Amino acid sequence: MKIPVALLSAIGLASATTIAEINGNRFLSPFEGQNVTAVEGLVLAKGPNGLWIRSTQPDDDDLTSEAVYVFDRNVGNGLAVGDVIQLDGTILEYRSTDTHMFLTEITSPRNVQVVARHNPVVAYVVGEDTPNPPTQQFSGLDHGDVFAVPNDVARLSDVNPVLDPSQYAMDFWEALSGELVTIKSPVGVTRPNQFGDTWVLGTWPATGRNEHGGLTMTDKDGNPEAIVIGTPLDGTRNPESKMGDRFADITGIVTYAFGFYRILPLTAVEIEAPASSDADPTTLESRGDCRAVTVGSYNVENLWTESDHLPDIAANIVRYMNTPDLIFVQEVQDNNGPTDDHVVSANLTLATLAASIEEQSGGVLYDFVEVEPVRNQDGGQPGGNIRNAYLYRPDVIELYQPNQGSSTDEAVVVDGPALSFNPGRIDVGNPAWDASRKPLVAAWRAVRGPRNKPFFTVNVHNGSKGGSSTLHGDPRPPVNNGVEKRTEQVESIGNFIESILAQDPKARIIAAGDFNEFDFVQPQVLLREKYNMTHLSTHSLPETERYSYVFDMNSQQLDHIYVSPALVNEQAKIEHIHLAAWLSYPDLVSDHDPLVAVLNVCGC
Q1: What total of structural domains would you count in the chain?
Q2: How far is CA 84 from the centre of its chain?
Q3: Phi, psi of 12 (to 5 degrees)
Q4: Do 304 and 254 fall within a single domain?
């Protein structure tokens, strides 16, 4: 990448191997495993385990970084930023796991000599002294779709393509690896992780920007223009921050670690203008009859009777969700939570939540239904016996022809249509649901509405994405762990939906919950295109405002509400209530935002 180079003092010794030659114009060094001699560079920064040097003899090639990391915790002794040094060493490509990319390093430095001191050190402004980072593609090996299935069909380290920093973000940052850069007027697009790393966007162009200052993931676009700000080199820690916070300019070193290209700031970032974290309550209202039933979905994050956050979950349901008529709840644990014994019922957990809602709302009553799982068969925290459940307001809706099913009873569609077990589980014995949360299905009717026209619900918490590779990782497209299982799970749900529609093409069906997948990725595409379910967020929300979860640089939607054709009309609306996405970690109640929708379930 072509960038201006500071004029340095005249140096008497010539380098035998330049830093640009060491880096080359690909991801992996052509000198890997080889010894190099008399490598010359200006010390840009020092860290706890080494230092970064920039070439005094740049080659004016946009594709070759002029800086490199020297790995040795003692190499910086007696050296200062601004020194020009020469050294011998060995070229190593290092990574911590086989799904991460490699970092080119000079290791085992020898014969270190200072050849000049007190030289100027210049940081290059990203987007001004360099081109802008690419906004849509991470790597050419993704072939235009970073979320494509199948994934992990190629490895960057195997192909080792010539860099194209004008098109691909990973190539862009690789061509700047080791350089000292400045980001002007950065904005936080997420909260820091547990290590204090956060993601920011500079003044360069961006796609997917939402109203709160974050970057919303969209079809084929995972927002590669954002960059991680890692651990400060002076040993301090970045402050707690949140989406939309504005920071002072950040200067630091470009490197690769923990699965991402990142900038290690010289000092901790400073918040100049904090963003608001206040979400607005839903504007959607129930009429108390079948013409406008409010439906919520909320992943309550391992909730049990003694959870510290239980009163806060109740408060969110009251204050922000406006006590919906029906709530699809995920991550409900049994009555004694993570205690691994023979307790599997969550009746006390749900009753405690309902009592807290009643107290905080001034008298709104909820009843609840669940199906107790087989002990330790549904995944999640050992002993917690995680499951889905429904909270419902019996003054507005009731179960239609109730017949409680057990964990081994399979609910099927019978004449009517109706359910053989209500509430119940579907497709019992299908290995797609092994060690995973099973869908909870039910049939309902509005208390004030037609008595013989039920609506049907499928409460979903599909398999986790845990174990996926990073968007900056070696596998291309990145590993979307569990996508095959989630596809099988959606097919199971879709077949159940089809069995209802086969009896009544105008059946009113709601499938909602934590699908653990994005609407434009294979499992959810299948639900829409094969099983003809409408994504309610797409139906009524702008593309950049569809998010319920924040992970890495992306505001993304894992929680969805899908409806059958009979429920699709102008009245059908949904709102995402950002009770998690906009907060810093200490303020989180659940890591998922709740959704609220309003639907006409009359069937007439």
Answers
A1: 3
A2: 42
A3: -80, -25
A4: no
1: pLDDT strictly greater than 90: no
- Cβ atoms of 599 and 510 closer than 8 Å: yes
Residue 14: what pLDDT? 37
**Strand-pair category, 554-556 with 475-476:** unpaired
| pLDDT of 10 above 50 | no
Strand partners, 418: 414
Strand (E) or helix (H) holding 494:
helix 483-503
What pLDDT is recorded for position 604? Answer: 66
Token reading at 8: 């340095």
Are 83 and 9 in contact by the 8 Å Cβ rule? The answer is: no
Q: Is the CB of residue 170 less than 8 Å from the CB of residue 41? A: no
**Which residues constitute the domain of residue 522?**
293-599
- Counting every residue written for the chain, the total comes to 604
Q: Rounded CA gap, 412 and 418, in Å?
A: 8
User: Is the model's pLDDT at 4 over the cut of 50?
Assistant: no
> What's the pLDDT band for 57 if we cut at 50, 70, 90?
confident
CATH code at position 46: 2.40.50.140
**Helical axes 483-503 vs 522-529, angle rounded to 10°:** 10
Tell me how far CA of residue 161 lies from CA of 18, 105, 285, 354, 385, in angstroms: 21, 19, 55, 58, 47
For residue 285, is it within any domain?
A: no
Q: What token pair was written down for 415? A: 């004449």
Taking every pair of Cα atoms in the chain, the longest distance, rounded to a whole number of angstroms, is 94
pLDDT digits (tens, 9 = 90+) for 348-383: 999 999 999 999 999 999 999 999 999 999 999 999
Q: Which residues neighbour 291 within 8 Å (Cβ) at sequence distance 6 or greater?
A: 449, 600, 602
* CA 273/CA 315 separation, integer angstroms: 28
Structural domain contains residue 288: no
